[in-house]
Amino acid sequence: SKVPPIILNNGVEMPQLGFGVWQVPDDEAEQAVGTALEAGYRSIDTAAIYGNERGTGKALAASGVPRKDLFVTTKLWNSDQGYDATLRAFDESLDKLGLEYVDLYLIHWPVPARGTYIDTYKAFEKLYSDGRTRAIGVSNFLPEHLETLIEATNVIPAVNQIELHPHLQQHASREYHAEQGIATEAWSPLGQGKGLLEVPAIIAIAQKHGRTPAQIVLRWHLQLGNVVIPKSVTPSRIKENIEVFDFSLDTEDIAAISALNEDRRIGPDPATFDMV
Ligand code: NAD
Known about the structure:
two-stranded antiparallel sheet, 10 helices, Aldo/keto reductase, oxidoreductase, TIM Barrel, AKR, 8-stranded parallel sheet, 276 residues, binds nicotinamide-adenine-dinucleotide, NADP_OxRdtase_dom
């Protein structure tokens, strides 16, 4: 395959680069995911709240790619937290995707004020031990939420998917994940394509390598060890974003990008985000 895997803490292989489908309408997801699969992507990142599990599932089925070569992630939405509700929501996601199992199931947000992420995760452990998901993990968990979770449950999350890009480098989380053997997966790895891809330092490195700014930012993530899931619905960009395994940044390039940290979020603060 085009994309090398990382090995999760339970031995499962996860492609280090995948395709994100947030904000892709259900009726466009089939085409976008289809284009991504043709371009060589094998990992797809969706979520119940994205409303496009059906379109995503159609593309997976139509692609002819053997199920074992795919890596499908979906996420449990906040309103479905709690043990029983989680089991029901998982069945619904699987049904929409048209799959018999997923590769990775994530708690989308901790919603700490609700106090339900531990019960939710216990349902995840059941789904995992029943073989209905090959790995379980979380998203948007701060180290304090992970500590509480790990203390109260048996399976260390395989992944924490968090907002991460050169303007928000998440040093504390990355360090904590590394200590615990949790893979760091970057959402909005391109900073949603705003501003970041016009930063002069990134443009200069792009020119030096004869690559695009998006490819440079993705390469920075990969060399740091992050899993990335860039999103695009534009076929040329979908292809461009996976053509990042035939060159490397040097230590100077990495240092110049790492100097861009501003600890600045685009998305919500996980400590307080409680949308249902
Ligand atoms: P992203 O950083 O992947 O940026 C996507 C945008 O960047 C595109 O809409 C396009 O405008 C632009 N872009 C993409 N490729 C480009 C290229 N080659 N050149 C120029 N511009 C380009 O942002 P995202 O969609 O927010 O994040 C990626 C994925 O992460 C999502 O689709 C979703 O799967 C996941 N995500 C998860 C959460 C979460 O809470 N867990 C939150 C947000 C996103």
